[in-house]
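User:
I study polymers; will you set down one protein's sequence and backbone structure tokens?

Assistant:
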Amino acid sequence: MDTRKPLYEGKAKKLFQSDDPQQLLLEYKDCLTAFNARKKSSVKGKGTLNNLISALLFEYLSRSGIKTHYIQILDNNRQLVRKTRIIPLEVVVRNVTAGSLCRRLGVPEGRKIEPALVEFYLKNDDLDDPLVTEDQAMAFGWCTRPEIEQMKSTARKVNDILRDLFASKNILLVDFKIEFGTTIEGELVVADEISPDTCRFWDVSSGDSLDKDRFRKDLGNVLEAYEEIWRRLSGKEDEK
């Protein structure tokens, strides 16, 4: 494993400079966190699964016409990505009511949302990543109107693509979080990761959670849920 000092280390990933100044090495960690790291643990193998799942999904999105920061997978825990200026907003797409939406609005869990709801949250752990309006995002310089419109449009396209993909694997894509960044050329691309850490997946048949909610809610079998997502996406269900 590379011993160079990370440029950035977050709750679940590290970023390192590569030999190319416009490319970075993204390393996935085995750390598990919830509620802005107020709950922490570690599960061996989780980083590898998130790396494999995220790489597969980024490649699938790229083939479907979505521009991302992803370049290629390097090994079990690392992938090569384009260097971007991350927009400090988390873009959440919701197909079914769950999680903080239910707590915030008092709506029951499991209600279908049609069309899908797109929300913006400020990336700030100290403030618990608060929900922000589009006008607030622009007023405080976090993004521009064209960026807002492009992020919303792209997020909906990503949702359509991934929702169909997961449906074909007997998985309901409940909601997910993505981030965006701008490259040195000024191109807006999907960045960060797409994995069971950043999505809610429910098994269509049983309704069981196959994502980080198993850690949040102390349901157990966290790694097994991540492994199940990888098996279905990769077509390796026969390895059960």
The chain has a mean pLDDT of 95. The helical segments are 46-63, 100-105, 134-139, 145-167, 213-216, 222-234. The first strand starts at residue 8 and ends at 9. The chain has two domains: 8-82, 85-220.
